[in-house]
Amino acid sequence: MRDVYVIGAHTIKFGRYINKSIKNLAAETIVPCLKEAGLDKGDIQALWFANSGWGYYKGQESIRAQCALRPIGIESIPMTNVENACAGGSTAFHHAWLGVASGLYDITMAVGAEKVNHPNKMKIFAGFLGGLDTENINKNLDTMSIFLMNDEDKKNMKEKVEQYATFAKKGGDRKKKKQTLGDRFNEYSDMLTVYFHLKDILGKETVARLRKLMGGDHSPFMDVYAFAARQHMKKYGSTFEQLATIASKNHYHSSLNPNAQYNFTVTPEQVMADRMVSWPFTRAMCAPIGDGAASAIVCDEKTAKRLGLMSQAVKVRASILGSGRERSFDDTDIGERLGKIAYAKAGLGPKDVDFAEVHDATAYGELHQAEALGFCKEGEGGRLAESGATRIGGRIPINVSGGLESRGHPIGASGLAQIHELVTQLRGSAGARQVKGAKIGLAENGGGALGQEEAAMCIHILERPVK
User: Fold this and answer.
1) How high is the pLDDT of residue 252?
2) From 82, 117, 283, 419, which residue has the greatest number of CB atoms within 10 Å?
3) How far is it, in rounded angstroms, from Cα 301 to Cα 266?
4) What is the pLDDT of residue 448?
C-alpha cells in the first residue's frame, strides 16, 4: 500500500440553508478545495460523495453524486455514492484514501453535502429513522422500554433542574408566536404528510408506537444516548456537571471557529439550566440540526512532490472503517476495537495523539470516546474533562472545532469537517484555536445504531507536513 497525503481540505460554515440545494452546497466546498490544492476539476480521477437525506427529503434516491456535480463540470470519472448515516463523510474519505493507497488512482476526492433543515419539522425527525434497522423496527421498539427513566432518574432530573433554574439564560427560548388558523392547518398538513409516508413503509400500528417515542424535539437516539450516560453515571460516578463542562468547553472552542454553526459561549451553569431533552442531556449538550458541506483531496507522495505540495501535504497514518456487532453494554465497544486497529496501523498509541475530533452527538459521546480511544482510563472521561485536559492548551484537546455539539452536524458532511479540522491544525493554520505543536491528530466518526453501538465507524490518524 502506498503512503497517502491530504493536499486539499475545505468546509463551508455549517448552519441553516433552506434556500440552497445540495448542488449549491457541494459546489461551495469543491471549488475552493480544488483551488487550495492548485488543481482543476479534470485532475480528479475518482470521487466519493456522501449524503444521507437527499432521497428522503427531495426524492433523489440514487445517482446523487452524478446529479450534484455535473452542474460544476465534474463528470465522466468514477463516482461512488456513499450512505453510512453520520459516518458517511468519513467513509467517503476512507475510500478516497483506499483508491490512492491501492495504486488504482493518483488523485481522488471525497465530498459530503447535507441538508437536514426542512420546513416540515416532523420530516426532519422522521428522517433519523434511516439510521436504524427499519425492517426490525418493532423488535427495536420492544426493547426501547429499557432506555426509559426509572423513578430514581426522574428524581435526579427534577433536583438538577431546580438547582440550576436560576442560571437560565434570559431570552434563551423565544416566546412562541400565537398560532393562526393557517399555521395550525400547515402543522397538521405536515404531520399528515409524514404519517402517510411512514404508514406506507412501516405500517399504521408501528407509526402509532413511534409517535409516542418521538414527542418533543428529539429522536429515539437521544433516549439511547441518555440511557448509556445514566449507566456510566451509576457505574463510575460521572456527573451532570461534568457533561456540562464538556458542552461549555465545546461552545468555547466553536466561538473561535468561523466555520462553526454556533459562535457563542455558554457557562456550565447555563448548559445545565437549558431545556431538558432526555435526562441527563439538556439542549446545549446535544448536536443541533444543521446543513453543510465539506471535502478533501488526497494523492500519493510522488504526485504531491510533482505538484510541489509537500509543504502542505498531511500524511494519512491510518484510515479504518468498521461496523458494529451484536454485544452487551458491558462488552468491548466498537470505538475501542477500531482504535486499537488504527493505532497499530499508524505505529502509534494514544499518548502520541496531540488532539482529537470525536463524534459527540451528545456531550456523553465525547466522554465515552475519550475513554474508548485510550486518552484516559475507563470511567475517568468526566474527570478528564473536568481537569481541563480536553480544552485548548490542555494535555489532549478534544473537539477543538467545537465538535458536533457546536460546530454542527450535517450528517453526510460531519466526518469530512473533522478531516478539515485535523488538516488545518496540523498545518498550523487554525488561528486562535491552534493546538500548539500539533503533530498527530485523530478523528473518530460513528454512524447509525444497531443494538448497543454504532452501525458504522471510521477512525483516521493524520500527521503534520514535513517542513
Assistant:
1) 98
2) 419
3) 43
4) 85
* Regions of the chain with pLDDT less than 50: 172, 174
Query: What angle (nearest 5°) sits at the alpha carbon of residue 39, between those of residues 42 and 98?
Result: 75
Sign of the Cα torsion 269, 270, 273, 276 reads negative
DSSP strand pairing (107-114 vs 4-11) = unpaired
CB 325 within 8 A of CB 334: yes
Q: Are strands 107-114 and 355-357 parallel, antiparallel or unpaired?
A: unpaired
**pLDDT for the residue 449:** 79
Distance (Å) of CA 190 to CA 195, 201, 208, 220, 233: 9, 17, 16, 20, 39
Strands 292-300 and 4-11: antiparallel
Q: Which residues contact 272 (CB under 8 A, 6 or more apart)?
A: 160, 163, 164, 167, 240, 241, 244, 282
Task: Work out the number of other CB atoms within 10 angstroms of the CB of residue 172.
Answer: 13
Cα–Cα distance list, 386 to 243, 247, 363, 399, 424 (Å): 9, 11, 13, 15, 26
- Integer angstrom CA distances of residue 227 from 87, 122, 133, 192, 365: 22, 24, 19, 31, 12
Instruction: Quote the CA–CA distance of 174 and 411 in Å, as a whole number.
Output: 26
* Contact in structure between 398 and 366 (CB atoms under 8 Å): yes
Tell me the three-class secondary structure of the chain, residue by residue: CCCEEEEEEEECCCECCCCCCHHHHHHHHHHHHHHHHCCCHHHCCEEEEECCCHHHHHCCCCCHHHHHHHHHCCCCCCEEEECECECHHHHHHHHHHHHHHCCCCCEEEEEEEECCCCCCHHHHHHHHHHHCCHHHHHHHHHHHHHHCCCHHHHHHHHHHHHHHHHHCCCCCCCCCCCCCHHHHHHHHHHHHHHHHHHHHHHCHHHHHHHHHHCCCCCCHHHHHHHHHHHHHHHHHCCCHHHHHHHHHHHHHHHHCCCCCCCCCCCCHHHHHHCCEEECCEEHHHECCCCEEEEEEEEEEHHHHHHCCCHHHCEEEEEEEEEECCCCCCCCCCHHHHHHHHHHHHHCCCHHHCCEEECCCCEHHHHHHHHHHCCCCCCCCHHHHHHCCCCCCCCCCCECCCCHHHHCCCCHHHHHHHHHHHHHHHHCCCCHHHCCCCCCEEEEEEEECCECCECCEEEEEEEECCCC
0.85 exceeded by pTM: yes
